[in-house]
Amino acid sequence: MSIPAIARFCWIGPKLAWAHGLALLSAAAHGGMEGVCLHHTDDLAPGPVLEALQAAGIQLVREDAPGRLARVEAALGLAPGLTRLYARLSSPVQRADMLRAAILFEEGGVYLDVDTLTVAPLTPLLNVPQFLGAERIVWPEWVRASRSPRLWAKHLGLDVLRKTLRLLPGGWRFFRLVEGWYAPAVNNAVMGATPGAPFFAAVLRAMAALPGDVAPGAYALGPDLYQSLLEAAPVPDLTIHAPAVFYPLPPEISEHWFRPTRHAQAALARVLSPQTRVAHWYGSVRTRPYVAEISPDYIRAHRTTQLFSALADRLLPALAPQD
């Protein structure tokens, strides 16, 4: 069985920014999928972003998140740990972590975060039962759990180097020379599965088993949980794609998507590789302040001096027409 050719996004809240709309529009324009679906838990506020999604034929599905989680609990024979956990979460990000796993387990497809731009067809990724992507990070769990002063000193040095390259003009170019020094770890911003995929069943079981009296950390339902499951036992039939496929610029270095860049269109050829299918730009990390600024006018104004706008303009030129 192959993964259904449906690109799925989740949204918690009533208002979509242009930055989020671009994720869906680029998936519709370049993903090569049979459909693009936005699963949303609230009534969406009317406006130009919603109009653009509707004009592009993107399916909007109002989610009953507790009802879906209850169905998953029944299918997996779980006590109501998932619905209880969802009810006590206040973070939209963590609620979306739960919802995306439940949607993929029930319906299958390719999930993408709303801080992505799809740059190439996703269909070559579908001929496996389930997949994730890896990113390059400084502090994997096995380092944080270590008591080795030497190992900690090494990763503190890598942290300082990454911070320096984040701030250095053109620092992403220098990061390319040292990226192999940074550990790969999985992220749940882009992933795919067939309905009932066993790894996503394991993810949901692990969520349901979390202590009810402890507030989960920021990444406890996302990358940390996924990586811990992979480190606990081998996962058959799980494909893990290299960082270049979904995360061409890793955390922190991703700020260069928005920093001034000379000859931005030409620079994209070095940022993206032939492997790249999706560019995840980490809207919840250093790039968060830009989310409110992004619009068609913003893209038009910055398309020659900024990597993000250059890529958005290339993918969706009708949003920022030439003078």
Overview of the molecule:
The chain is 42% helix and 15% strand. The longest helix has 19 residues, at 149-167. The radius of gyration is 19 Å and the shape is globular. The strands form two sheets. A seven-stranded mixed sheet has the order 3-2-1-4-7-6-8, with helices on both faces. It has a single domain (6-136, 184-319), classed as Spore Coat Polysaccharide Biosynthesis Protein SpsA, Chain A. The protein has helices at 18-30, 48-55, 65-76, 81-88, 92-107, 141-144, 149-167, 171-178, 198-208, 223-232, 243-246, 264-271, 296-302, 307-315; strands at residues 6-11, 35-40, 59-62, 109-112, 116-118, 130-137, 183-193, 238-241, 278-280.
Features:
7-stranded mixed β-sheet; 323 residues; Spore Coat Polysaccharide Biosynthesis Protein SpsA, Chain A; alpha/beta; two-stranded antiparallel ribbon
Could you give a quick summary of the protein structure above?
With 323 residues, the chain is of the alpha/beta class. Helix content is 42%, strand content 15%. The protein has a single domain (6-136, 184-319), classed as Spore Coat Polysaccharide Biosynthesis Protein SpsA, Chain A (Alpha-Beta Complex).
Strand order of the largest sheet: 3-2-1-4-7-6-8
**How many domains?**
1
The helicity comes to 40-55%
**Poorly predicted runs of 5 or more residues:** none
How is the CATH topology named? Spore Coat Polysaccharide Biosynthesis Protein SpsA, Chain A
Average predicted local confidence, pLDDT = 95
Instruction: Give the biggest beta sheet.
Output: 7 strands, mixed
Instruction: Count up the helices.
Output: 14
Gross morphology is globular
Strand content: 15-25%
Give the second-level CATH assignment, the architecture: Alpha-Beta Complex
H and E order: EHEHEHHHEEEHHHEHHEHHEHH
Main structural class: alpha/beta
Computed Rg: 19 Å
The beta-strand count equals 9
CATH class: Alpha Beta
Distance between the termini: 48 Å
